[in-house]
Design a protein that fits this description.
alpha+beta; single chain; Peptide Methionine Sulfoxide Reductase, Chain A; 6-stranded mixed sheet
């Protein structure tokens, strides 16, 4: 087993977390904040838009099962990388589309993934590659939100199922259910 970590910001972390939890090889998905100027930010501070943080997810994965390139392709397929500082009704820099590479190899992979996405989106991708910054885990009630609370939250019910449908349609072979023994 080759454990690695990927960090992406693609709007509301409840929505991105739900997508990556279903993938074979993904061990954990943690919601949190990074890229800002305030130590130990709270959800309320980040949502206010004044801290500079992005809502993000930190994915721990087995790179022998799923590679960083595949995670990047799934990231681009399940959010809108052409919207600057927003995803749907979520508006502000805290909802920006960004990749936070952990090493030079991830930086090169991120650049290549953006080029692939540019081709698919007519050159309109605004996803940024940002320097790795201090990771601040989100409060406990945000972790695994879709699985625990989200299906009772109208915002999540409107936003997350379409992302999961894209995932299941385009990446069915990558799902945990596809990897389970028969």
């Amino acid at each position: 087993m080759a454990q690695d970590v990927a960090i992406f910001a693609g709007g509301c972390f409840w929505c991105t977390e739900a997508v990556f939890q279903d993938l074979a090889g993904v061990e954990t998905v943690e919601s949190g904040y990074l890229g800002g100027s305030v130590a130990e930010p709270t959800y309320k501070q980040v949502c206010g838009g004044g801290t500079g943080h992005a809502e993000a997810i930190r994915i721990t994965f087995d790179s022998d099962v799923i590679g960083y390139d595949a995670l990047l392709d799934i990231f681009f397929a399940t959010h809108d990388p052409t919207q600057l500082n927003r995803q749907g009704n979520d508006v502000g820099t805290q909802y920006r589309s960004a990749i936070f590479p952990r090493n030079p190899e991830q930086t090169e992979a991120a650049r290549a993934a953006i080029e692939r996405a540019q081709t698919e989106h007519g050159g309109k991708v605004v996803t940024a590659i940002e320097p790795l910054a201090q990771w601040w885990p989100a409060e406990d009630y945000h972790q695994e939100y879709w699985n625990r609370e989200g299906q009772r939250n109208p915002y999540c019910v409107a936003t997350i199922p379409p992302k999961l449908q894209k995932l299941r349609k385009s990446f069915q072979a990558r799902l945990k259910s596809a990897a389970a023994p028969a």
